[in-house]
Design brief:
Blueprint lengths: L11 E7 L5 E9 L2 E6 L7 E2 L5 E6 L9
Antiparallel strand pairs: 1-2, 1-5, 2-3, 3-4
């Protein structure tokens, strides 16, 4: 039996990598019943289904470091 470690909880921040794109997007990981949805990090407009063929991978955000560039 395999255990899932560091699996995102609902409303946690995740980084999403889409296929055919070099951009990384920050989203909110939301579970609704048996479904998983990736919603915009800020605001409520729009959502993206986790079963979309355009998503290459999703990673949980473990730490955010902000600095002045």
């Amino acid at each position: 039996v395999a255990a899932l470690m560091n699996f995102p909880e609902t409303n946690e921040s995740v980084i999403v990598k889409s296929k055919n794109s070099d951009k990384l997007q920050r989203k909110r990981f939301v579970t609704e019943g048996n479904a998983v949805t990736l919603k915009p990090f800020i605001g409520a407009a729009g959502s993206q289904d986790s079963k979309s063929v355009n998503i290459e991978w999703v990673r949980k955000v473990l730490k955010v470091v902000m600095s002045n560039l």
